[in-house]
Amino acid sequence: MKKMQSHIEDIYLNKDSKRSEAENIWWLMEETGELLRALRKGSDQEIKEEFADTLAWLMTIASNRGIDLEDAFWERYKSGCSKCNCKPCKC
Ligand SMILES: [Zn+2]
């Protein structure tokens, strides 16, 4: 993720950091809607593209907060389920 997030920062952070967080979240929600539509009736290629776009907006929002998503992910899920700490989850 670190490599993907820094790649997205190189492309968009200058532009995306000028937008409010609420606006960037709006774009994330719009991409999430496109992902849902693709999952329902899109081609395999469209589904892959919408997953990538949705992830890119999530990374942008994290970057604007100074959060490294890979670090955040491993901090939360390193030992397994975030609630029971088991892998696989036993909740
Ligand atoms: Zn669990």
Tell me what the structure shows.
With 91 residues, this protein is mainly alpha-helical. It is globular. The protein has helices at residues 2-16, 21-41, 44-64, 69-77. It has 4 helices and no strands. Helix 1 (2-16) crosses helix 3 (44-64) and helix 2 (21-41) runs antiparallel to helix 3. It has a single domain, classed as MazG-like (Helix Hairpins), CATH 1.10.287. Bound molecules: zinc ion. The site of zinc ion has 7 residues, from loops. Zinc ion binds next to loops.
Gist of the model:
The protein has 91 residues and is an all-alpha fold.
Keywords:
73% helix, mainly alpha, Helix Hairpins, 91 residues, binds zinc ion
Number of helices: 4
Low-confidence stretches: none
Mean pLDDT: 95
> What number of domains?
1
First-to-last CA distance: 27 Å
CATH superfamily: MazG-like
Oligomer: single chain
Biggest beta-sheet profile: none
What's the CATH architecture name? Orthogonal Bundle
Q: Could you tell me which ligands this complex binds, including any ions or cofactors?
A: zinc ion
CATH topology: Helix Hairpins
Strand residue percentage = under 5%
Radius of gyration (CA) equals: 15 Å
- The level-1 CATH class: Mainly Alpha
Keywords: Hydrolase
Domain NTP pyrophosphohydrolase MazG-like: 21-73
Protein name: Nucleotide pyrophosphohydrolase
GO molecular function, one term: hydrolase activity
